[in-house]
Amino acid sequence: MVISPTASWFEEKEVTSEFLLPALLKALLCHETPKGSCLESVKIAIDTGYRHIDGAFVYFNEHEVGQAIQEKIAEGRIKREDIFYCGKLWSTCHPPELVRLTLEKTLKILQLDYVDLYIIELPMAFKPGDAIYPKDENGKIIYHETDLCATWEAMEACKDAGLAKSIGVSNFNRRQLEMILNKPGLKHKPVSNQVECHPYFTQPKLLEFCRQHNIVIVGYSPLGTSRDETWVNVSSPPLMKDPVLNAIGKKYNKTAAQVALRFNIQRGVVVIPKSFNPQHIRENFQIFDFSLTEKEMKEIEALNKNVRYVELLMWRDHPEYPFSDEY
Fold it and tell me: Choosing a second label site near 310 at 20 to 30 A (CA), which of 199, 229, 277, 316?
């Protein structure tokens, strides 16, 4: 989670390092969590000081997130306005008439009146319906015609209705962002773009483009990701074993993970690491008592391999597959 002083900080506050705190690790795409583990992890994170929770309907644990928030409010630990919750519109819900209905379903599950940020999870639309991953007789995902501008207009309507304080996107490349930014009659531009971002994949060109348009980059997999070769590119070595990150960590008595998170924080990237380990949740928060030098930042920048862990190759034939472009 990212601690934010107000629920609408993406729009109302200057984005500085004091607000760019590490986020509670989200469940990986399509990965369910053991019953109860998300509930306890969120409560531990809130007690630790986290305030930005990154979730999604397809993580199948929003009911536990909502329960944890409500319990902490009841304890007097937090107020609703202290929490910054990010929800996501899934790919089967892109048709404009489904956007608000989907968000309202999320709000009901969370037991909240609004989300602080609502984002389009992927620029690729799938066939609408009850199936999260609609497949044909050959087991292939059934795609749906994508009209990102029409979907965005429905997102704008959700913001205007007060159901979402801010709206943004995820996994969008420059072309797709420009499509939204240049849309005739644009009312609200995306405040954020959530993408893979870590020392092995630093996204310098996309980061600069988003800076020029005041779009905050939210970096998922900031510590690398799982080594599940069924959907992850394992040609890149594990990030946490990198000798440079570990050597810098030794200097500051920090872990490689803390150094990787600090690196992105100092670049102005919001980080959302994943963990259900109480010790790791607390460690991921302890990155504000040291700073990397300019030399160390350059050393870490030089680690960039420009290779994704999360390629989503199973959908690379989708017309709006975002990773074929340079950025």
Answer: 277
Mean pLDDT on 18-31: 34
Tell me the binding residues for substrate. Answer: 144
Q: What is the DSSP letter of 240?
A: G
Q: Given a cut of 80, is residue 91 above it in pLDDT?
A: yes
Residue ranges at the known binding site: 144
Q: Which residue has the tokens 């009901």?
A: 108
What whole-number percentage of the chain has pLDDT above 90?
83
Structure tokens at 6: 């107000």
Q: Picking from 50-64, 74-88, 228-242, which range would have the lowest pLDDT averaged per residue?
A: 228-242
Please give the Cα distance from 266 to 169 (Å, whole number): 22
* Dist CA 123 CA 298 (whole Å): 32
Task: Please pick, among 59, 85, 200, 309, the residue that the annotation labels catalytic.
Answer: 59
Determine the pLDDT at residue 8.
38
Distance of CA 48 to the CA centre of its chain: 20
Q: Is 59 a catalytic residue?
A: yes
Q: What is the DSSP annotation of 13-82?
A: S---TTT-PPPBPPPPTT----TTHHHHHHHHHHHHT--EEE--GGGT-HHHHHHHHHHHHHTTS--GGG
Strands (E), 146-269: 164-170, 192-196, 216-220
Q: Measured between alpha carbons, how far is residue 88 from residues 12, 17, 116 in Å? A: 21, 25, 11
Reported residue count of the chain is 327
Predicted TM-score (pTM) of this structure: 0.90
Mean pLDDT of all residues in 195-213 = 98
State the angle between helix axes of 148-160 and 96-110 in degrees (0 to 180), rounded to the nearest 10.
50
Q: Is 290 helix (H, G, I), strand (E, B) or coil?
A: coil
* Mean pLDDT of the chain, nearest integer: 90
For residues 288-317, give the mean pLDDT: 96
Give the strands of the sheet with 216-220, arranged side by side: 52-54, 84-89, 115-120, 164-170, 192-196, 216-220, 270-272
- The listed CATH number (1.10.510.10, 1.10.10.10, 3.20.20.80, 3.20.20.100) that belongs to domain 9-315: 3.20.20.100
